[in-house]
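In this supplementary section we document a worked example of the pipeline. Step one takes a protein sequence of length 295 as its only input; no multiple sequence alignment statistics are reported here. Step two produces a three-dimensional model, which step three serialises into structure tokens for compact storage. The input and output of this example are shown verbatim.
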Amino acid sequence: YGICEKKSKKDKRIKLIKQANKGVSFARNLGIEESKGDFIVFVDSDDYLEDTAIEVCNNNIKDNDLLICEIAYIVNEKKIYIPCKLNGEYTTKTLLESLNNRKNIKLAERINSVCGKVYRADIIKLNQIRFDECISIGEDLLFNIYYLEKIKKIKWIDYAIYNYYKNNIYSCTNDYKKNKFMELNEVSNSYERLLDTLGDKKLFDIVKYIRVKNIYSCILDLFHEKCDLKFKEKLKYIKNIKNITKRKVVIGKGFGFFCGSIIYSFLPEFLLLLICKIIFFYRSFRLNIRKGDIG
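The serialised model returned by step three reads:
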């Protein structure tokens, strides 16, 4: 806060707002209301932009409604950037068609986040697009879905302006969320409604991929230290997820998606729980190594 305060005193274009912590969605919505410029960019507190980010965005946005830039990931203080080769101009439908390709389907996760993107303020404000303050996960994707419904021209550039600290142990994305599945399921349903409006059932591979990833994320959370469910309650939780997502999870494209959907669809709950337990402890082991590096 001190750094921001000093900057705001030196540059009158910077407006510093001090408030009680009411969550990221409230803070972003307030930022939208207070914004005066033509464009809006979101940056999380633990990440940072390249020095040339705004210049690059200004040179590329032109008459487009949305500019998507690449993201570099910082892992153990090392920057990792893999070009996605999706640079070009799109409509909402042609972009989703490109992401629906088996080679690109993992890149559909880039739609999940508001980071590394430039939005038009007038489109956001005119259509009253805001972050849902009642949910604590998936709010970025929901915001993007509402925005994609209202725009015509999208540009994707192969340039990483955004640096994201992946698996930051201090990030709020590592928190345990009790209602995580219900919130993510509603976001997936909203994604399906967007695809329905485009009238192309072939695009549903994207939301199926995201739904499977979300399901595994929720099951892995059953081993979080803050989860107080007993073994039988965890099995019941998984069974409930299966009942809700029945006929919504199908065998997917790509080896990882294919294996994940097969395991989820056909293994009994206790074996699925066992597999996820192994995955969770493997991830925890890697995270503990990183904690040691940070400490």
